[in-house]
Amino acid sequence: MRQAKTLSAHPARRVSWMNRDRAIALLMITPSALAIAVFVYGFIGWTAYISMTDWRGLAMSTSFVGFDNYLTIFSTTRFQTNIRNLIVFTVFFLASCLVIGLLLAVLVDSRIRVEGFFRSVYIFPMALSFIVTGVVWQWLFAPGNWPNDPTGINLLFKQSGLGFLQAAWTTDTNVTPGWRIEGLRTRIGIPMAMIPVVVAAVWQMSGFVMAMYLAGLRGIPEEIKEAARVDGATEWQVFRSITLPMLQPITLSAVIILGHISLKIFDLIITMTGGAPGNNTEVPGLYMYEITFKANKFAEGAAVAMVMLVVVALLVVPYLIYNRRAEVER
Amino acid sequence: MFTTKWLKLFGLFSILALVLAACGGAPATTQPTAAPAQPTTAPAPAGSGKLEIFSWWTNAGEADGLNAMFDIYKQQNPGVEIVNATVAGGAGTNAKTVLKTRLQGGQPPDSWQVHAGKELTAYVDAGQMMPLTQFFKEQGFDKVMPPKLLEQITYNGEIWSVPVNIHRSNVLWYNIKIFQENGLTPPKTVDDFFKVAEALQAKGIIPLAVGGKDRFETPHLFESVLLAVFGPEDYAKLFQPGADWSDPRVREAAEIAKRMLEYSNSDRSSLGWADAAQLVLDGKAAMTIMGDWAHGYFIGKGAKVGVDYGYAPAPGNEGVFMWLSDSFGLAKGAPNPEQAKAWLALCGSREGQDAFNPKKGSIPARTDADVSLYDEYLQYSIKAFGSEQLAPSVVHGAAAPEAYMTEYGNALNVFASDLDVDAVVEALKDAAKDLK
């Protein structure tokens, strides 16, 4: 930094700040910068604008209505349910992925014999698309006419004498505990049909978290652990006080990556449940698609898109700021 | 060095020229339309050029039907190249998304598939379709299609699309063996239905198979219940702008639907309509209420009508034919309007409809079809279409605009899950503000 300042402050150098290298670099960056400016930020701005118009129907309308569309969507039972589902999904998905991912990483890291094999086995689901995962798990979790004539997992349970484990899975219409709160049009609780969806998502993504933690575990110098052991720390104490704190940056990255997948989830849910039963597994992504392209309510669809953008930004922006600070410190 | 540079430049320009030419659309058809169009016969050949048809017909039967129509078109208009722009996906969900994007971008296909009736009003309101009332008169379609049908597809005083086929939505499909073994007859009224359902449940058979995965099954069931409770006249009024949904009969219909769902399989939301039909075929369930595409499904599974499965109007729907129709319209600013008109003439002609419908498993919208081309069920359906009262289907785009269909559909899907009569009555009242 300081050096750069003195350079540019130098009168003889100021003229040639645009030297050959820089010109080429700028030339290389310009196309992608322009493309991103137009096709990403330009269209975010456009969506924000559309969300404040009264555009309904296929003919575009640009009369400004302020935040009316936001008020409209937030006052519907459906969108409130969507938000509830999104929170439930995100919390369960993140927590399960982190715990299972860490567990798998520790297991794989414990110098087992065919480590490479297990590593691949656990990461493999990530190679699939959510669409495939959704379709397969939808078959598995279809309950059939249980308990007597079940399908999928229920059938497996019945065949193996564990019939009492049969459940309604994706067709469970309960919301537990299903509190009603004054002013809210949806019931607060965990939609039980969401559990199988979380299971499928965790099945797919926990291997990825394992890979991240594994890299983190490998990055912890053995000497520190050794020193602790010499001082008489138990293995658990070593794990609690050395390994876990040193994995914190990994956890943060994992939360960001999984979090933005989770908040924008669409493909898994549309193939696995389509939002059913009722709207019990529907998330804003599905709602946005339906009111935009089926109901032709483009302005309201744009409002849902903006809400999703803000929610993801709430997660990502603090991380970017944190990262930037860390970089400056370095 | 120099030569390669120039070559590259030349190449670039030629590509640019090609792109521009492609954007410019098909060359204008300079030849004047020969002779005034003769009504009721095949229209004058559209000469040369291109024709782009947009549809979601990609499955076996329907794609065969479409191709059969293309073959006739090619004979009539040998110079025209047909561009078949299909996007797969049931009920056209994906296709409509693509179509809307193209229309927004000002790149319409010449003619696109759309459900006849209120579903196309969104395109009309946006000024994306051309009125065809005059065309109907020229071609004589107005004389061979039922007046009630023409009335129900008229919007803003004009007809906007040519119906190619008619499907019936309010059909009760039942497993004949189950009914025979238990000495039952298919229920004619709603009360009959509950008697039959009670008897079947006592035997451990699921009385009514209902799906839910495709998100239209319960809304579909409910429209036939509405029709049973309201009758065809009042039913049709329910979907007019400003309709009164606080009518106590709405609640009555919801109560009936609730009881029906209680007699159905509990895993509704994990089954598609075809899975529900399969339950009937497998003898696990006795009945299902579904459109007559279920007939195509049963045939595809090797079942025989009259032996394995039977058909009857949905309970309380006797004498009323709830219709839906696939149709083609004319795009405003169509790149090839002459070719498109020749296509629409074929779509509405007896020849075209009789080529398409036996393959698709639907009946013609014209009442003068060659009945011998159709199977037993379709012959029954043709007869019913010509003689019974007509009611438009709401779930399949005939009765109400898309914005309303979405709200109606969601209200009923939530109902399928929580069976909350108060909530669905409220939600339907709410949804009515999207009627226009």
CATH homologous superfamily grouping of the largest domain in chain A? MetI-like
Strand content of chain A: under 5%
Sheet/helix structural class of chain A:
mainly alpha
Radius of gyration of chain B: 24 Å
Oligomeric category: heterodimer
Query: Globular, elongated, flat, extended or rod-shaped: what is the shape of chain A?
Result: globular
- In the predicted model, the low-confidence regions of chain A spanning at least 5 consecutive residues are 1-9
Work out the number of β strands of chain B.
15
Query: How many distinct folded domains of chain B?
Result: 2
Lateral arrangement of strands in the main beta sheet of chain B:
2-1-3-13-6
Report the major sheet of chain A.
Answer: 2 strands, antiparallel
What is the typical, i.e. mean, pLDDT of chain A? 92
User: What is the CATH class of the largest domain in chain A?
Assistant: Mainly Alpha
Describe this protein's structure:
The complex is a heterodimer of chains A (330) and B (436). Chain A has 330 residues and is mainly alpha-helical. Chain A has 2 domains: 2-38, no CATH class; 68-329, MetI-like (MetI-like fold, Orthogonal Bundle), CATH 1.10.3720. Chain A contains 15 helices and 4 strands. In chain A, the strands form 2 sheets. A two-stranded antiparallel sheet of chain A has the order 1-2. Chain A has a two-stranded antiparallel sheet with strand order 3-4. In chain A, helix 12 packs antiparallel against helix 15. Chain A is globular, with a radius of gyration of 25 Å. The relative contact order of chain A is 0.13. Mean pLDDT of chain A is 92; it is low at 1-9. Chain B is built from 18 helices and 15 strands. In chain B, the strands form 4 sheets. Chain B has a 5-stranded mixed β-sheet, covered by helices on one side. In chain B, strands 14-7-12-15 form a 4-stranded mixed β-sheet, sandwiched between helices. In chain B, a hairpin with a 2-residue loop joins strand 4 and strand 5. Mean pLDDT of chain B is 90; it is low at 16-42. Chain B has 436 residues and is α/β, with parallel strands linked by helices. In chain B, helix 2 runs antiparallel to helix 15 (350-360) and helix 17 (402-418) runs antiparallel to helix 18. Chain B has 2 domains: 46-167 and 324-392, 3-Layer(aba) Sandwich (D-Maltodextrin-Binding Protein, domain 2), CATH 3.40.190; 171-316 and 401-434, 3-Layer(aba) Sandwich (D-Maltodextrin-Binding Protein, domain 2). Chain B has helices spanning 2-23, 60-76, 93-104, 121-125, 133-139, 141-144, 147-152, 176-181, 190-202, 217-237, 248-262, 273-281, 293-300, 337-348, 350-360, 376-387, 402-418, 421-431, and strands spanning 49-55, 80-86, 111-115, 154-155, 158-159, 161-163, 165-168, 171-175, 206-208, 285-290, 309-313, 320-324, 326-329, 363-364, 389-392. Classes of the chains: A mainly alpha (330), B alpha/beta (436).
